[in-house]
Amino acid sequence: MAAAPSQIGGYILEHLTFLTNKPQTTLVNFTVIDYDTVFFSVLLAVLFAGSFYMVARRAAAGTDRVPRGFQSFVEMIVEWVDSQVKDVYHGTNRLIAPLALTIFCWVYLFNFMDLVPVDLLPDIAKSVGLAHLKVVPSTDLNGVFGLSLTVFVLMIFYSIKVKGPLGFLAELTLHPFSSKNKLVQALFVPVNFLLESVTLIARPVSLALRLFGNIFAGEMIFVLLALLTLVHSWAALASLSGWALMLLQAVLTFAWGVFHLLIITIQAFIFMVLTIVYLAMAHEHH
Amino acid sequence: MHINLTLVIQMAVFAVLIWFTMKFVWPMILGPMQERERRIAQGLAAANKGEEELKQARDGAEAILREARERAGVIVDQAQRSANEILEQARSAATQEGQRLVAAAQQQIELDAARAKEQLRQQVGALAVAAASKLLEREIDAGAHEALLNEFAAQL
Description:
The complex is a heterodimer. Chain A is an all-alpha fold. Chain A has helices spanning 5-16, 35-61, 70-88, 96-112, 120-127, 141-173, 182-226, 240-283, and one strand at residues 28-29. By secondary structure, chain B is mostly helical. In chain B, 94% of the residues lie in helices and 1% in strands. Chain B contains 2 helices and 1 strand, in the order E-H-H. Chain B has helices at 5-136, 142-155, and one strand spanning 3-4. Chain B is rod-shaped, with a radius of gyration of 60 Å. At the A-B interface, strand 1, helix 2, helix 3, helix 4 and helix 6 of A face strand 1 and helix 1 of B. Strand 1 (28-29) of chain A pairs parallel with strand 1 (3-4) of chain B.
């Protein structure tokens, strides 16, 4: 009853392939585009922005009204994000808090797509003639790096804006090793620069890869669990072992789904908190 | 594992989303929330103040009531005292009046008695004179014997 290796491989590969305008053979190719990632990113962005904007308009319409339902939920998130930002950053930059809210909600929605049954949307897409569909934007390196590189650009921008170009350069070259002796200090500069640039560049990379790794692994578990009944399909209902396998798959998928619910929340939270921390550090003088 | 144009699009969408949240979502949610928070705090403060004022008013009312009660007590006491006084005065006045009346009555009685005595004496005198004149069967010269008769009458 075991599935043929090629069938398993094909199934997994199908879940790893993006819906692109043309096959991508090299690691970097800026003429290729992942339609699915773009589509779901924009869809979730509209979902987030639209629902929050509706609440914002209702909230701004009158403070006399008692908030209830979705408005309370949104206000709870906003207040929570606000307190997270205030814990770390005490300055006056008015970008950080909205940025944190955007990241938390958007990344959470990205990750939440992982909880949609793995084959549901790809099968629907197949029925309308799309060969592949990857529904989780945070399992696309472009998706996660799109976030972390934007954060990185903001980090650099605010570092230079707050400390000045020279201050930012000094931060990169005069730490962690410093000396009162000018000559020794001059020797330290390249070493410091090397260390500090690695530290700096590691931030967006780790930010993106941490999220990507966790969600990708989670999706892969769902795919592997789906393999349990892959070859049986409806024929599984004919035998007792088929029923047992299906039950096993259902129980395991549910258990992993519950656990994954925790992971997607934590990953969104970590991404948000680290962004706040990095931007707060960009505002700090040494 | 690949990097492509999606990255750039993703960054652009993200930038727009950040701008939108910063412009239209964050301040329009947090602002009213803070405003509402302020109003709730004000309301609570006002409630506390009202409660405090109510307590003070209640204390004041109680004090006023207590004072009124005390004053009423004093007034009742005074009234009682003055009533007693008036009663006492009336009693003594009545007693005096009674005594006066008794004394007047006594005087009147004495006067009447004296008058009656006098009348009686005169009548006895006249009677004696008449009796004597009858006895003597002659007319006594009233003028000549008046002094004698009066003396006789006085001895009665």
